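Anyone able to model this chain together with potassium ion?
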Amino acid sequence: MITVIGSLNMDLAVQMGIFPKQGETVFGEQFQIIPGGKGANQAVAAARLGSQVNMIGCVGTDSFGETLRTVLQQEHIHTENIATASVPTGIANILLYNNDNRIIVVPGANYELKPSHLEAVKEVIQQSQMVIMQLEIPMETTDYALKLCKEANVPVLLNPAPAANFEMRWMEEITYITPNETECSLLFGDDFDEVLSKYPNKMILTLGSDGARYFDGEYPNHIPGYMTNAVDTTGAGDTFNGALAYALVEGQSLDEAVYFGNIAASLSVEKFGAQGGMPTLGAVYARLAGLEE
Ligand SMILES: Nc1ncnc2c1ncn2[C@@H]1O[C@H](COP(=O)(O)OP(=O)(O)OP(=O)(O)O)[C@@H](O)[C@H]1O
Ligand SMILES: [K+]
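re: yes, here you go
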């Protein structure tokens, strides 16, 4: 069982041809309501590959909260440990204009996920084979989750996004950390070779279409990405994290698991949306088989 402790958001995306000025009202071209949040996305990525996934998070009592639960249930994710708070469900308001995007995130219920809730579902967390986290929940909750995992020796995969919510002292408690280049520069510095060599077999730096790198204790290791025609890279990082966790729990080596993560993420960028493009195990194996021919 993989447990994800993280955010659930409803993404509200408006596509527009004219951006409103102050005080102005304009007509938009398209509106979409899309389930998201890094926590929920990574849970879906792992579940679609066949992992048993337990989601721990917090939604509001509104209809978005209900929908987000239902969407996860349809992916066979356990939702009984998702708390409900009397504040609105987290949302991301996405304004798409002229190939540009402006995003406003209101964390809402995600910030009501408190250590007391983790304490209440402690057994589930401590019986997991791996816990996946990101940083869209309160820092005190991340602290508490790491403490519970350490107590029970549960490996933790942490995706440090958004980077501003990261604490360096967590490095000792984390088993794997998966920054992208921006997050790595911000938190650890620009000299990636040096940074990676400090955290052997622990830090996996993702490089977009170039794949990912890590230091294996002896040598730097670059696992190239799978070249494909990207339609929408939203959710690539989330797919990579979910797939990496799936593969590690299945007993793959770090090398194999990163490769598997790259392949899964490459499939995700071929389709629109974050959760929409996440592949099944069959799709990943089909691409792997194609590579072996
Ligand atoms: N254009 C692409 N083609 C193939 N694979 C890709 C592409 N973009 C991303 N990937 C895969 O997704 C992984 C994560 O991508 P990236 O390093 O951009 O993370 P990210 O910034 O967290 O992603 P995002 O925020 O776009 O979801 C990469 O390691 C790679 O495996
Ligand atoms: K996508």
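The mean pLDDT is 96.
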